[in-house]
Design goal:
Shape: globular
Largest sheet: 5 strands, antiparallel
Helix content: 10-25%
Structural class: alpha+beta
Order of helices and strands: HEEEEEEHEE
Strand content: 35-45%
CATH topology: Immunoglobulin-like
């Protein structure tokens, strides 16, 4: 009987540890100083392995888009663009350059291509606000 109690206790202890390792974090994403109230901000969240975790559509009010989402703790890369015409794609010119404002977490930028993914990684281990520019 004692060994059954010990097994049950250890099982509860293990389940408790697993739940703690899956902490849920509140992350507020905020984009301000947008060029207009037209369209949406389209956000892509990727995990450390560059796997898509979520695609989020943020409505715009007073040239600000803001949303709080719940995420598992970890490192993530965020990229977004202002979909001014609400066609759900980043519009490009004849040379392949974006015609809509876009940006990456940590305000990572590169001259002729997107920044390296490692430059965009953000530590999400506690509740936080993430802001980055869309240019």
């Amino acid at each position: 009987m004692q060994s059954i109690r010990t097994c049950i206790f250890l099982l509860f202890l293990l389940v408790g540890q697993t739940a703690k390792s899956q902490d849920v974090i509140d992350v507020t994403l905020k984009f301000d100083h947008l060029e207009s109230n037209n369209g949406y901000v389209m956000l892509l969240i990727q995990d450390e392995g560059e796997k898509d975790v979520a695609k989020v559509v943020l409505p715009i009010l007073n040239k600000i888009a803001e949303k709080t989402i719940k995420m598992a703790a970890g490192n993530y890369g965020f990229s977004a663009y202002h979909d001014v015409n609400a066609n759900e794609k980043l519009d490009l010119n004849l040379f392949g350059a974006p015609t809509e404002a876009y940006g990456f977490s940590n305000n990572a930028r590169s001259t002729f291509s997107k920044p390296s993914f490692s430059e965009t990684l953000v530590d999400v281990s506690k509740n936080r606000i993430i802001k980055f520019k869309l240019e």
